[in-house]
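User: I'm putting together notes for a lab meeting next week and I want to include a structural view of one of the chains we've been expressing. I don't have a solved structure, so I'd like a prediction I can at least talk through. The sequence is below, exactly as it appears in our construct file.
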Amino acid sequence: MTSDDRITLYYSPQTRATGARVLLEELGASYDLHVLNTKAGEQRQPAYLAVNPLGKVPAIHHRGELVTEQVAIFIYLADLFPQAGLTPMLNDAKRGPYLRWIAYYAASFEPALIDKYMQRTPAPATQSPYSGYNTMLGALEAQLSKGAYLLGERLTAADILWGVALNWTMMFGLVPRTEVFMRYAALITARPAFQRITAIDADMAEQHAAACGT
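Assistant: Thanks for the context. Below is the predicted structure for the 214-residue chain, given as structure tokens.
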């Protein structure tokens, strides 16, 4: 394996990058970590801004190319390791629904979540990318009510994305703890990959805080 074949994950613990690392573990992928102490503001320093001008994690470097944006990373990595069975292939009827719910996370859930967190006055439904917060969550809950996972009984990378996100957002009170959401998040957070990375993240976050004197 050449250096370009290695996946480098730009990473900080207990951030959106956690989901990407959990996915890499689920895929059985070999990868290198480029760790940033976001408590120290390393993501805003010139060295990392040269990688991602937005100063955000996760980002990955693979085969000489950079991939940013959380949902793009999930799609890319799951497609890169089809043998793990976490992505419907192009000729699979479930490919469309799979992409739908991954895109829904970025296009609807994240904007709605930030508006709620910032306590912004919502835009009119006809001008909002997510219609309305309750409408957006209602569509997700209805889909998850149909089976164990987004695509029924089949676990995909989309579930890793959503399960990690719902666990965090329910923890901070941004998403209601409905029976459906709690059941779903519990399925993902009980998985060995999530448990392993969560424990590692806790230690890393403690070290980062200590390095900053907090």
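A couple of points you could mention at the meeting. DSSP finds eight helices and four strands in the chain. The first helix runs from residue 17 to 27.

User: Perfect, that's what I needed.
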